[in-house]
Fold this protein.
Amino acid sequence: MKRFLGTLLGKAVFLAEKLLHKNASSFPGKAVLTVFPGYLKTVQYPKLTVMVTGSCGKGSTTRIIADALRENGTSVAHNLEGSNLLNGVASTVIKHISFSGKLKQESLVLEVDERYLKLITKYITPDYLVINNITRDQPPRQGDFDIVAGEILKGIPESTHLIVNGDDPVTKSFSLHKEHITYFGIDRFFASYDNELNDVRDRNYCPKCHARLTYSYRHYGSVGDFKCPNCGFARNIPDFCITSVNKDTNEITVNNKVKMTANELILFNLYNMAAAYAVLSLAGITEDKIASSLNAQHIQNKIYQEIVKKDRKYIALNCKAENNATYNLAVIHTALDKSPKTIVLGLREISRRYTFFDLSWLYDINFELLNDDTLQNVVCAGPYRFDFAARIMLAGIPKDKIIILDNLDHAGKVFEEQTKGNVYGILNFDYIEPFINSVNEIE
Amino acid sequence: MIKIANIYDDLLNLYGDTGNVKALAYHLCEIGEEITLDKLRFGDKINFADYDIVFVGSGTENNLKLALEDILPYKKDIAAYKANGGFLVATGNSIELFGKSALGIFDYTVTYPEERTVCDVCLKTPLFDSNIIGFENHRGTLDCDEKIILEDNFLLTYIIGPLLVRNPKLTDYLIRKLLVKTKSSRNPDQADYSFEEQAYQTSQSTDLKNVVLSQ
């Protein structure tokens, strides 16, 4: 009865929102959980429930999984990006539920906030839980990555099968606590490096015995082919591994066998594909069908955009403020281009959640990697332009290469007249649009 | 020649604390001073007496425990280093290493309440006129009133990350003192802090809570 009334209430709120042209995605869930806190426990869930959590790429990975399932004939209920807290998840359930209390779709694919996982798995037990990565992210809210990993661990139900990044000692360390685990990963490819880059890493020591980890190569930070020389804790060969990446054709191969094309060879994109591949394979979809669904044309990418104006490439790399990993991947990607280049840095708001003035994460980004003769100019724009300029100066980049702009309004003219080479916008997501707009103004 | 050590740089580097080392090294080089920079890690032998200034930064609680295990045998060395005028800058929760229940260099004790302390800070110090600004993000808390502990040439604070970048006056102050200590003839006025100064002005224009430190 409670379930029926809850469903009725939720559906009514959805209808009211529709009539009022309001779109607060978490509100119907909030309304129902306020009146019936145990509502989610009463629902009959489909045969396949997948959750994806971690610091970056939850939204993209769930979207890839949901699209591929649909393409292969499985109907999917899927939460919209951002509605990944308890109320948002409840809204998704209410939206797709029938009055008999059963989800109408054959599968449920949820992006789940890493700090809310334990609240959500109290009510919904996923068959598979993907942990993409756990990085430094929103430190004022999250504290640190060890805290986040601990919170995730508390939220993993006994029967849930884990699918984690096997290249990352932070996510791999779940193997010290859990048994049912499948690993995905990426072998050495053109963007991997083996020199001891002077960068900041999350995990340098073995989580089991505290010896210093050694690496045969790294992809970024502490992610790569790691091994503890003391106790044997190591990456090993992941169950689902991207074994080759072709720089020219964008063709990737999984487990030396299954070929598909990635639309962009940005590392997080490859990891999202590997994670999705693992889920789809465990869900029983055949290799060729997975490959065909994951092929480039189907995956919308938000990380990378490229525009060519007057023989110069303008590349927008979408990063997340307060998350050094996204910036470091953009820096590594930019450094691969050995032709003359300019970089553009900027952000409008450090956080949408709070008003703290904390830019300490700028010092966890390895801008030093860009300090060479190919770097022509660095444009620092926006309210924090001087913080960026100080960071760039302290990376050893000559001050005369730095151009300071109040914002990116009409910056196209500045790019054209005052900078040289390909232009890489290493930007917070709220500065992507101003960057693209200013580039499009170039006649 | 000024000799810098960054201890546990691969364990205690959680909140951009490496920025402090970068800022000091950059501006010393800018004025023509020669420097050495040693990164000393878990298990390395640390000869405190070899250095003019030592930096230590924030870490996860697990990493801080590891660092504590490694640093405890140096209790006497650190006390001697302090008494002999050695400089030390400890940011973030590394302040906890030096308290009563750890190295015992200072008298404060650390407790761990449920809620983390996460806040902007802006405070007066006896070092110079302008306020010191920064950000705190930690679980432990000390039983003393000072937000920045200054004793001999040790400076310890829960403020995280690039404290010296955000406070160019503090970098300038440290450089002047280090030049005196090492009897260097370099001219500290030749350092250019204009980017840091302008960044400082930006943060001053936002609403920072003014915590006044009485000393």
Observations:
- Chain B touches chain A through 42 residues (CB under 8 Å).
